[in-house]
Each structure stands twice: as structure tokens, then as C-alpha cells.
Amino acid sequence: MSALEDKKKKGLVFNIQKYSVHDGPGIRTIVFLKGCPLSCNWCSNPESQRREPELAFNPGRCLTFSKCTRCLQACLRGAIIREADDSLRIERALCEGCPKHCAEACPSQGLIVYGEERTVDDVLKVVEQDAAFYTRSSGGMTLSGGEPLLQADFALALLRESRRRRIKTAVETCGMVPWKTLEAASEYLNYVLYDIKHMDAGAHEAQTGRSNEIILENFRKLAELAPDRPILARTPVIPGFNDSVEAITAIAEFLRPFPNVRYEMLPYHRLGTQKYHFLDRVPPMEEVTLDKSVMPRLIDAARNILGDRVEIVK
User: Fold this and answer.
1) pLDDT tens for each residue of 70-81
2) How far is CA 25 from the centre of its chain?
3) C-alpha pair distances (Å), 262 with each of 3, 177, 256, 302
4) Can you give the residue range of the structural domain that contains 75?
5) Is 245 exposed, middle or buried (0-12, 13-18, 19+ CB in 10 A)?
6) Could you tell me if 53 and 15 are in contact, meaning their C-beta atoms sit under 8 angstroms apart?
7) Which of 16, 140, 176, 274 has the most CB atoms around it within 10 Å of its CB?
8) Is the domain of 243 the same as that of 221?
9) Of 91, 114, 137, which residue is a domain's last?
């Protein structure tokens, strides 16, 4: 693929976040791509899951129809409903294909569109704004999602063009993609963050909607393909799913043979709950909390196997 073709390649992006220090080495810009093959019950980015743009409604920002009717007038499909109390409701069955019109009309940003088609060149112009920070900190761009490699052509074009512009790259992946996609991306990656959620296929499928065979096989291949490239394996610690010494021990044993792999456990949080409501969805784990006493035991269990390869989340 030529540089010109890569620059023009389009994909669906729902956020570009600057100055991150948690998603790869140094200071990074994270590019979030829409779509995910999994449906994890604990997902904190529900706006990432579907592959099409979505309209969200934040009632705390809405002026109500008693003061403003711009979105009502802008909606082309009659999906914006005026309730008896002058509040707004989105008729989801009618809302498709054109969410930007009403969102652009909203003066208070009560309506938000998650997902915008952007070119590689457009995205990298934003990323390059912080090139000085990358140079000083060994940072760069991280592709995230959802699952960024689900938009394979766009993600690969982003990675290739980043390499041409000497921007270091990383990817956050769940590994549920064809191996040929991951293999192609590998050539342009300096760093990989890879989710390993559970070693039991049945338990994995029950909580994410998919089994883990492809994920684990892809991880083995990727770790062996470039044994000098650092990989950070990550486990979101979820109550009732993998918050046991047995579950974490099994993951650590799986990772033990790969010296280029470090390991990090991320305690469950509910920071994405509000976004489910904005999208008129019910958060699957809204009332669940993680016992704070669990993490030290799990860290000790992992360190018994991986030693100082276990990262501590601060």
C-alpha cells in the first residue's frame, strides 16, 4: 500500500485522548476505534462496542424543550421525542445513519455522537501535535477500542503511516482477530498491550460472549514472533469471574514461558456506568464492587510465578 493510499484510508474513531501515561511507554496519544468482537459484562467503554456511530444523550446538559428545540428540528427521522414534561427521549429504532445533525444542533452538547469517520492523515495530524513529548519520553501513539484491529485496513494504514513519520506505536488488543491481521500489525508495533481475561474457555465465553482459544493461540504466536518486543499482558480483575488465586495463578503459569512478557492486573471499576445510561442501555454490573483486600493476594500469587515481571497499578 502506498503512502498516499494509506493517508486517505478512512475508519471510525470515537475518541483521541492526549497525554496518557497508562497505555504504553512514555507520554502517549490514544486513538480509540469503534467495534469489538467481545461483549464483556464489565466493559467501561460501551460506546466502543458497536461498529456504527451512536447517539448518546446526557440529560444533565440538556436545556429541555422549554428553552431549546434545535435538535427536534434537526432530526431527519423523527427519533427525537418530546415528552410531556418537556424532557427528551431518543427513539432508538428510528435513530440510525445520521446522528450528527441533531448533535451538531445541540448548543449545550447534551447530545453526543460516538464515532466519526476520519482519515489516517487527519488522525495523525492530531497525534503529531505532541511529537515533542514522544521524543522526550519514548512515547507515541496507542491504538485502542473496542478492538482496534477489527477495523483491520484502517488500523494497518495508521500503523504503516506512523512508521513512515517515525512515531512509535502500540496497540491494546483483546486478541480476538484473525492471526493474519495481528501478524501484519506486528511488523509496525513497538509495544503490545494484550488482554488475558481467563484461562477457562467456558468461563470466558459466559462473561464475554466468546471462547478464548483464538485469543490464547494468537498470544503465543505473537510472543514468539518477536521475542525481543515487550508485551504487557493485562487482566481486568472482575468479581465472581477471575478474582481468585486459582484464576490468576493459571494466567501467570500461561505467561511464564515468555520472558518478553510482563503482567498487570487492573482492579474492576464502574467508571463507564454513566455512559450506558447515555446510550439507553442497562449496565450489566452496575451494583458490583471489588473487595479491596483481593488485589494484594492476587499480586502475591502472580509474583510467586512471575517475580518482578508483575507490574503494580498505582
Assistant:
1) 999 999 889 999
2) 17
3) 34, 22, 9, 11
4) 54-114
5) middle
6) no
7) 140
8) yes
9) 114
